[in-house]
Design the sequence.
């Protein structure tokens, strides 16, 4: 490797697919015969604030530094010259003490000194307790082959137990010389597995790491950059990644490398932290925001320059895949409770226990006091815009592999207009042998104990779960006029057309006495009595019209000439029901008590369906797929949403 094509830049941790759900290896070239794996050799030099045990013999004071007491912390004006004890290509610094610090460093080889480089302390990039030793750190910083001396000076702050760590990447001559340049041209989808870049295993012997990787459902992604040189070669990228891992484990006491993924300047994606690339592994990349986030570090320094476009494309691919398998909506805004602690003198942008309202694609500086990831932050708005459409094109009707039901919540299912069925609350993922990606033709959903049925706009019925196939009573091929479906029992029900026609199937009683508006597409929803003797049709103006043996409605809303009513639902354990308007208003009729939805969007026609649950509560579905509680209903989490696409079509109390 050439020493001076990698001029000194700090590698401090300022340190996000249409990729299918199968990770393939990157096809990295290997040696024809087995060879020892690459490794990182480290050596520590104790500099200041250590007491009489400081390694004074390894420190030569800079000419203008004056006399320094090695037992005292390094403060403003402190400077030292360090002779490296090994052939380190990278160095890192650790210390203890409260407050921010400012450091500068330069390196020397046989030819010259490098320029001085200002170092970012990176204190906000750290795991949450119990992982880590509580020290602060910078590094590793790439100084390159042939470095013999390091000059270090303190511009601000107080650093006790200041230690320099020298790291050398050792690759046996018979082994492959890093990850080859040919790999840089490998097209996605691919991840460079941990074994291929020479990752060390999870550090079970480190305090706080004994139980192995921890897991949590990811809710957002955080983008970092590593602030190292941008001129590393394809063969040197794995040296840098191994150096980061070694510094995190050996110097800072982490269980493993902090990031879930690292992307180099060639667009190659490294599987970083152990535990499974397709799982929600808790990282150590953002203090207070590690649990439930995906940490991705761009390998380079983008404080003053933009990241290469290939890195942005690689981020796009990676997050499309991760967001698909975890059901994350790239355009959504979520509430995230900070776990930040001020212990050890850390500053918290969001103090522990406070709610941060965040997009699902953010950069490190959004949650901590750092400029990370510099100009690479320009990727975030593009990713928020583009990832969700790619996730949807991947097939939103497939069950979400990473979905975790909540046993203490009701079981709900949401329907999107492409025919996708998605769990919410305590519902499990649903398998459906149909779906119309890109064709917004699904119109309604109804359930049975075994599963249920989805109605398409032509009147066809498609079963899901283990529900038996049912023949639709009507079918208007090419004519999108079917509007809603309601079941009476596990085999019988009704299909509603836009003119108000109610069509019985499976042995349901004929729907006599109901409304009918030939040629006028104004019917919006249908609901049936629990006894199956009749029901109600909702028109777009809010009128509720009885058919069969259902009693006529008393009370209820009506907006003459204004097509704003969206759904009707009956109480399962009492008289009457509710009409949902597009703004989120719930309007009781037939003796039902008043009930308020937890969200109201005045002037915005964004609500699509409502279900009432036993106990007096209800849930409403908005156009993005979010489910909102009403009355005394408990909040639920949805498995997938589609912000800005108006894809939500129906809501069901799940089987």
Sequence:
């Amino acid at each position: 490797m050439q020493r001076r094509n990698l001029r000194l830049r700090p590698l401090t941790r300022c340190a996000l697919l249409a990729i299918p759900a199968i990770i393939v290896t990157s096809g990295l070239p290997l040696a024809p015969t087995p060879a020892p794996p690459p490794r990182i050799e480290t050596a520590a030099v104790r500099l200041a604030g250590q007491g009489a045990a400081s390694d004074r013999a390894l420190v030569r004071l800079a000419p203008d530094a004056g006399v320094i007491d090695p037992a005292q912390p390094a403060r403003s004006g402190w400077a030292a010259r360090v002779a490296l004890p090994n052939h380190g290509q990278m160095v890192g610094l650790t210390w203890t003490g409260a407050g921010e610090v400012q450091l500068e460093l330069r390196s020397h080889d046989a030819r010259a000194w490098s320029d001085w480089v200002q170092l970012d302390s990176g204190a906000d990039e750290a795991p949450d307790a119990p992982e880590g030793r509580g020290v602060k750190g910078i590094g590793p910083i790439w100084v390159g082959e042939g470095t013999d001396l390091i000059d270090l000076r303190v511009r601000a702050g107080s650093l006790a137990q200041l230690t320099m760590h020298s790291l050398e990447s050792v690759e046996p001559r018979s082994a492959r010389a890093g990850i080859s340049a040919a790999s840089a041209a490998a097209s996605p989808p691919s991840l460079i597995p941990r074994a291929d870049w020479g990752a060390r295993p999870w550090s079970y012997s480190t305090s706080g790491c004994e139980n192995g990787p921890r897991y949590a459902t990811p809710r957002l992604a955080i983008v970092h950059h590593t602030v190292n040189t941008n001129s590393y070669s394809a063969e040197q990228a794995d040296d840098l990644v191994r150096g980061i891992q070694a510094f995190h484990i050996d110097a800072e006491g982490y269980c493993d490398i902090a990031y879930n993924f690292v992307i180099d300047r060639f667009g190659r994606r490294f599987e970083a932290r152990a535990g499974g690339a397709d799982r929600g592994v808790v990282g150590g990349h953002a203090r207070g925001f590690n649990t439930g986030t995906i940490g991705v570090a761009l390998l380079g320094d983008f404080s003053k320059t933009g990241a290469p476009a290939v890195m942005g494309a690689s981020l796009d691919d990676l997050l499309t895949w991760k967001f698909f398998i975890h059901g994350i909506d790239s355009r959504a805004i979520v509430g995230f409770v900070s776990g930040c602690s001020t212990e050890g003198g850390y500053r918290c942008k969001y103090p522990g226990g406070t709610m941060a309202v965040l997009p699902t694609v953010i950069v490190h500086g959004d949650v901590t006091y750092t400029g990370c990831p510099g100009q690479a932050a320009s990727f975030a708005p593009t990713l928020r815009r583009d990832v969700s459409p790619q996730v949807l094109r991947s097939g939103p009707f497939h069950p979400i592999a990473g979905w975790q039901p909540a046993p203490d919540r009701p079981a709900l299912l949401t329907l999107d207009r492409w025919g996708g069925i998605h769990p919410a609350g305590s519902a499990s993922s649903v398998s459906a042998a149909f779906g119309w990606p890109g064709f917004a033709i699904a119109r309604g959903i109804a359930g049975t104990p075994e599963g249920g049925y989805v109605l398409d706009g032509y009147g066809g019925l498609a079963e899901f779960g283990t529900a038996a196939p049912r023949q639709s009573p009507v079918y208007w091929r090419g004519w999108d006029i079917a509007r809603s479906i309601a079941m009476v029992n596990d085999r019988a029900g009704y299909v509603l057309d836009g003119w108000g026609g109610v069509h019985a199937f499976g042995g349901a009683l004929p729907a006599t006495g109901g409304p009918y508006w030939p040629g006028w597409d104004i019917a919006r929803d249908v609901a049936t009595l629990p006894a199956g003797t009749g029901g109600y049709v909702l028109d777009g103006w809010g009128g509720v019209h009885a058919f069969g043996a259902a009693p006529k409605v008393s009370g209820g809303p009506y907006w003459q000439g204004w097509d704003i009513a969206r759904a009707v639902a009956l109480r399962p354990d009492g008289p009457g029901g509710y009409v949902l308007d597009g703004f989120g208003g719930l309007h009781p009729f037939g003796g039902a008590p008043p009930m308020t939805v937890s969200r109201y969007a005045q002037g915005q026609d964004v609500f699509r369906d409502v279900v009432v649950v036993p106990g007096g509560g209800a849930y409403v579905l908005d156009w993005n797929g979010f489910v909102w509680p009403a009355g005394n209903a408990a909040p639920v989490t949805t498995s997938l949403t589609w912000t800005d696409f108006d894809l939500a079509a129906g809501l069901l109390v799940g089987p």
